[in-house]
Amino acid sequence: MNKITTRLFLGTILLLFVGTFIRDFLVMEPQTMKHIPSPPMEQPVAGIPLSFSNVPIGPRAPAAVNVIVEIPQGTSNIYKYDENMGILKLAGVVTSTTKYPGDFGIIPRTLTEGGNALDALVLLSEPSYPGTLLEARPVAVLHMIHNDVREDKILMVPLFDPRFNGVTNVDDLPDYTRDTVAEFFRTYTNAENEWVKVEDWGRAEEARQVILDAMERYVETTNSV
Predict the structure, then answer these.
(1) pTM (2 decimals)?
(2) In the CATH hierarchy, which top-level class contains the domain 63-224?
């Protein structure tokens, strides 16, 4: 038997062995096959936390904080975070003709008197996307009462955009910007048939104090659970 014949013979034996193994594997009884469980729904996907409460507020709070964008500037869509599913949900649309004048979102690890995360509106040159995390600093606070509960809105500018370096307080904003933001929240909330009272603008130090109070309320509530 020459070398070529030997190689052909060994190759045939190998093919028969592999074929027999594959056939036996395919006809295995289901109970004898190894079960590979599906990943549980409650596990994070690709490192994304299931709850926004897992996102830190930032080491420089309340002077600068993280903001999680829910609704980008210029849209009429209303996105809200669904705690049960761990995802942003398209929950409705703004029924008035106005659109969001900035990127609207929440400041993580804060809690208002109404039991929600503190709302923030970030002025940007270009809108971002729902779910975006950005760093911003407070320059003003719009004092509001919503359904008999205080729900102040923090007005912010991004840390990463040098075009806003000169904006440090409410007085640095044009009257048009302040009026547009206040009118948006007044019109938007009234369109939802909910009672709202837009009071006045507070300066940057007031905004930082509102954030600090909301941080302390979050810690107190979390520790008491």
Answers:
(1) 0.74
(2) alpha beta
